[in-house]
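Entry 14. Ran structure prediction on the chain below.
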Amino acid sequence: MAKVKITLVKSPIGCSETQRKTVKALGLTKVGSSVVQEDSPTVRGNIRKIEHLLSVEEIDA
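Output, structure tokens:
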């Protein structure tokens, strides 16, 4: 299964509460932090919700 590397590049300060909770749900804490997640519809939906704050790379495993 493919994986996705997600990096927080912009601060969620000034965003709505649901967008800040989505950042936390993805496992991101500070600007510049990265996580590797399984590529699933749930993760893709969360990425789409806050795509203006993220940088996303696909990783072949």
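Helices lie at 17-25, 41-49. Will compare against last week's run tomorrow.
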